[in-house]
Amino acid sequence: MEACGGAHFWGREIGKIGHDVRLVPPAYVKPFVKRQKNDMADAEAICEAATRPTMRFVPVKSEETQGAAMVFRIRELLIRQRTQTINALRGHLGEFGMIVPQRAANMSKLIAIVEDPESGLPADAIPTLKVLVASLAHLGAEIGKLDAEIARCAKENEVARRLMTVPGIGPLIATAIAVLAPPPETFRKARDFAAWLGLTPRQHSTGGKQRLGANTKMGERSLRRLLIIGANSVIIKRHVHAAARPGTWLGEMLTRKPPMLVRVALANKMARIVWALMARGGAYQSPTAAA
């Protein structure tokens, strides 16, 4: 079947009656669609793609895995809603000449302006703006509950505990990898896992000439974004990480390459370390300690 939102449910149901279920990514089916798109052409393309000897398939997820992954989807949704609400509140206050810098860290300044009786806001606008303030409080409380649930799962999950030994990986990233990433045996090696995450350059090579472009951005975008954020935390606090000291690979990269390129390169390296820990077990050891 073609992988989609309900494919995992039907994959489990069809598998119960003895069939071998294989889910084909839609991007791998599209090249086999001939001319017009309709149900018959789609079915033919799926059958054609599934018979290819080198075709890669999506593993069917269990109900437990899908349920555990839902917390990350809901958390992302609430964070987007909170960002929208902050932007709306800042925009409305800007109409009255009250300018507050961007970023969620300045949310308290926006709330303080609305709740200040001497702020000079029109009396008709204050009740409406307080609706946004109440929405921010509600969203913050719900996000805090989900963060607590993720922290609890990280303590109970053995894989997540081992992944948290990697610099830059905390409870959120470790739990997300343990839940959202496919089984490590899906990939032949660590570089394949990093490529699936979209942390490798897109190739457009021909005639023996290698041409590398921007990142492919394939795979699970949430994991890619979280790993880049984790890499950024290592770079920001490089004075406390042995792997970022002068003379190390990361230290030399920071002196020669653009900051964002270094963050993605470090995220790629973290992804390869993550695959090795999931596939072979054990905990992370820094190069200095291993030597």
From TrEMBL:
Kindly provide the name given to this protein in its UniProt entry: Transposase IS116/IS110/IS902 family protein
List, in alphabetical order, the Gene Ontology terms for molecular function in this entry: DNA binding; transposase activity
Q: Which domain of life is it from?
A: Bacteria
Identify the residues that the record assigns to the Transposase IS110-like N-terminal domain, covering every copy. 18-95
Which UniProt keywords are present, listed alphabetically?
Plasmid
Q: Which GO terms describe its biological process?
A: DNA transposition
Q: Which Pfam families match?
A: DEDD_Tnp_IS110, Transposase_20
Q: Where is the Transposase IS116/IS110/IS902 C-terminal domain?
A: 160-238
- Asked if the Swiss-Prot or TrEMBL record annotates the protein with the keyword ATP-binding, the reply is no
User: Coiled-coil ranges per the record?
Assistant: none
